[in-house]
Amino acid sequence: MTIACRHCNASEGFFVRARVSGSATTYYTKTGDFMADQSSMYGNLSSRRHSSLLYELS
């Protein structure tokens, strides 16, 4: 199943602008390198759709 933008029918990709608020936590290794697994980084953010416009990825 492929999803497509309901406004322009782009199926390669599109995005929706949103406002987010909260705090993000980044994780580092003991040597100061950025850890590969950042899956919980955005867990404390809340979002609200900013626009009804969808934008095609180019």
Structure report:
With 58 residues, this protein is mostly beta strands. It has one domain. The chain is 0% helix and 36% strand. The chain has no helices and two strands. It has a two-stranded antiparallel sheet.
Which bin fits the share of residues in helices?
A: under 10%
| Strand neighbour order, sheet with most strands | 1-2
For the biggest sheet, the summary is: 2 strands, antiparallel
Mean pLDDT figure: 77
Radius of gyration: 16 Å
Structural class: mainly beta
Number of strands: 2
**Poorly predicted regions:** none
Topology of this structure?
Elements: E1 14-22, E2 45-56
Overview features:
two-stranded antiparallel sheet, 58 residues, mainly beta
